[in-house]
Amino acid sequence: MKVEFELIKTDRATGARLGKVRFGDQEYETPMFMPVGTQATVKTLSPEQVKDCRAGIILANTYHLWQRPGEDVVAEAGGLHRFMNWPGPILTDSGGYQVFSLARNKRKDITEEGVHFKSELNGASLFLTPEKSIAIQNALDSDIAMSFDECPPATADYHYLKNSIERTLRWAERGRSVHNNPHQSLFGIVQGGPYEDLRRWSAERTVALDFDGYSIGGVANDDECKDDMYKAVEYSTPYLPKDKLRYLMGVGEPVDLVEGVMRGVDLFDCVSPTRLARHGNALIYGVKDAGISGYKEKRINLKNARFKRDFSPIEPDCDCYCCKNYTKAYVHHLMRCDETFGATLLSIHNIRFLIRLCEQMREAIKADRFLAFREEFLKS
Known about the structure:
Helices cover about 40% and strands about 20% of the residues. It is of the alpha/beta class and about 375 residues long. The chain has two domains: about 5-270, Queuine tRNA-ribosyltransferase-like (TIM Barrel, Alpha-Beta Barrel), CATH 3.20.20.105; about 275-380, no CATH class. The longest helix has 27 residues, at about 340-365. The chain is globular, with a radius of gyration of 20 Å. The N and C termini lie far apart (about 40 Å). Residues about 285-295 have low confidence and may be disordered.
């Protein structure tokens, strides 16, 4: 069943949107954070544990599943949902980000037909085209597929970005023309770096192709690019349809979720909550008055010796499985002993943290108090 989006409310003072996204009889509220299950699994967690975090949509990666086990194996298993036993919606990215990071000579390896690159698994020469990316996603049978776009480097200049947008638009048309899974939605991707005219041009041209939803790409760079990230969103969302989903790709820092929602974004994804967990890091925050006042957020590392005798939960008010059942001292012990269960508990907490943050933002939008929510958040 193709995705349906209903805009319920826009915050009075900002562009923050409250919406409902439907996949058949399944319904979820936005803004939403989507955990990443790159290789058909959210690292260290079972599908049941991910569901207990109140996750809705999750992600899987087209490139990695193409390489292992192969889209034919997933299709033979009955599709990605049955293969990984996930009952909710799944979004597959196009594989473009991974492919472009593996292309050694960007000018030589990127052609009009597609991208030549070497497999990081065995060094084999591979070639991915817009048509191939869509065919893989059709076979995976995800609920949302992404167009294959060129992922320009953060250092790309105006001229490079302009040519890249033109190619991405041609690739979007090619991918759309071969997309043949009637139950799968297809999203277009807006590029253009930090340039207002390029973002507008890319957005308007992509919208003209009439996709089921739209993504803002080219923003998941390092911290030095945060201003450019926010500009890219500001320059893109005004030209995207109000009645379709808006997805900011690869973004998961708490502050970036808040800033993205304020600028009209509905969906986010990132590997950061599980990656941080594997290194012993826990996101913590305290919430009072429905997340409007007394909001604070920071990060602690449970490997630190100061937690050895700390028998309190990571966060007293958190409703996740980790905080309701275990102490910082126990998680510290697990991490110092390299026990996988420690990473599991921290992954549960960090994913739930970001999902709770989205829940708090939704409450703030309902109350027309999102600006106050953001101001309190930034003060911390």
